[in-house]
What does this fold into?
Amino acid sequence: MKLRILKILSFFLFIQIIIVSVISSFPGFIEHYYSQNFFLMISKLQHLQLFWIPFSVGDLFYVVIVFWVIKWFIFLFKRKFKPFRLIIYQALAFVSVTYFLFHAFWGFNYYRNPLHVNLNLDPDYTTEELTEFTCDLIQKSNLLHSQLTAHDTLAVDYDFRKNELQNLVFETYQEFQNENLNLRYPYENLKSSMLSLPLTYAGFSGYVNPFTNEAQYNTLVPKYKQPTTMAHEIGHQMGYAKENEANFIGAIVTMNSKNEFIRYSGLTFALKYSLNDIYLRDPELFSIMKDDVNPGILKNYMEVQLFWEKHRGPTEFIMKTIYGNYLKVNKQPDGLKSYSYVVALLVNYNKKYNLYQSTQTINQ
Ligand SMILES: [Zn+2]
It folds into this structure.
């Protein structure tokens, strides 16, 4: 590429950084013009272009980029990093284009209004409110668990074929009617990741490609966990960039599924967050409440935990550090451990609107 274009692109990187840091202080502006307008339009086009392709175009794109960067480095070594100025401009131009595409296609969603503001919810809750919410969740989870197993000590077995769970999660989104949340998901742009093994060792169950807006899920993760992961990633696809908000979206959608297995994944997912939060506030109360949970549900939790322990290694630590820093750069200092905000959304949403709105009769 001509040096002049490289210089312009490099300069544009600094301009972009300034623009992003200024605009990020105006969440209302981003919410209105980007997240609820431009982003919805552009993501719809991306889904329409890519949903019918059976493999992840984004994964392929990542693989090509990695090879291309390796090839570039080999070339640089051969040339002994000369001419140095040109190399710096090439690198800056590459970062500049990536930075632009990231923000245009998805990244600005990090700076939109927090979900509790859009939903007019309190960000706080008392331990009494949390306890009451969790007790109710335990009851609902236990009841559904006993319908899905022969005994309360058995874990729920997810005997599903390839793509079956994925289709059920898609149907769940189709059926989910909620006037407070705009969760229309007309194209099933959800794909099994070609990179499931490296993803497992990196400690991730799924991810959204911010450039193509495809959602990928790790097929090696226990099937019990997959529905909430898929629903979480779809939440990201719809512009809920923050981890805790995507978790809330994943939970509310799956908890209201007409399919018992998807609903069980959702209820116990929300239960896990709530119990974790009780533990942080009152460990004694936690152990009393944990005893009320069917042992089979705890076995499903254990199954997921053992899976991750089996694949734990240095890669996971490195990737989680990189991802943690990525979240910090995108103004999410709580990073991966934002438990209480998910619970705040669940508890306060339930108080104001009723979390089990769509399946009131099913969940009773
Ligand atoms: Zn996520």
In short: The first helix runs from residue 3 to 23. Residues 232, 236, 243, 246 surround zinc ion (CB under 6 Å). The radius of gyration is 22 Å. Residues 115-363 form one domain.
